[in-house]
Amino acid sequence: MKKLLLIALMMPLCAGLALAQDVSKGDPTIVIKTNKGVIEAVLFKDKAPVTVENFIKYANAGFYDGTIFHRVIWDFMIQGGGFDRYFNRKPTRPPIKNEAANGLKNERGTLAMARTSGVDSPTSQFFINLKNNTALNHSPRDYGYAVFGKVTQGMDVVDAIASVKTGPGGPFSSDCPLDTVIIESIRVK
Q1: Calpha distance 113→123 (Å, rounded)
Q2: Measured over all CA atoms, what is the biggest interatomic distance in the chain, rounded to whole angstroms?
Q3: Of residues 166, 136, 149, 137, the one with CA closest to residue 71
Q4: Mind listing the pLDDT tens digit for each residue in 148-170?
Q5: DSSP string, 31-57
Q6: What is the pLDDT of residues 79-91, one digit of tens each?
Q7: What one-character-per-residue DSSP string does 70-139 give?
Q8: CA quadruple 90, 185, 52, 170: dihedral, nearest 10
Q9: Hey, what domains does the chain have and what are their CATH numbers?
Q10: What global pTM score does this model have?
């Protein structure tokens, strides 16, 4: 009888542990707080494990706090995660492997890693696609840009950022928002 009582008392505890383990196996969700509103996105850790781990390390370290969306191109994408509000480039960790061959497409609302002309050059900068950008996908023509997440809430905020007036300033002469768009924080939910 005591054994049955002990098992009955432990069942909710064990169920709670199992639930916690199941949740940790799911794709992480991030919250991007900006001065224009909040964006939530799911990260595809099974399809882009290196990229998601890299992004989460930057987020957990507070790296993105106070950075800006420094490049906004209407009907294309918004890019951020590399400069502070004064256009000082933030020092990054070494570049990571480009996971653009993961089968994910640069579609509206997806998050992808920015890079230089070198294939394996992504560091901290990312962008959110404003439309289906097939030219950015992995192909024989170009290695492409690694998609690693998708906006689940706040596309209206993304669109609001995309509609800000841009002009000369910072490192991207005609693509810089004239009204600074600040990434206040990025956290794993």
Answers
A1: 8
A2: 78
A3: 166
A4: 999 999 999 999 999 999 998 77
A5: EEEETTEEEEEEE-TTTSHHHHHHHHH
A6: 999 999 999 999 9
A7: EEEETTTEEEEEEEETT-PBPP-PPP----GGGS----TTEEEE---SSTT---S-EEEESS--GGGS--
A8: -40
A9: 27-188 (2.40.100.10)
A10: 0.86
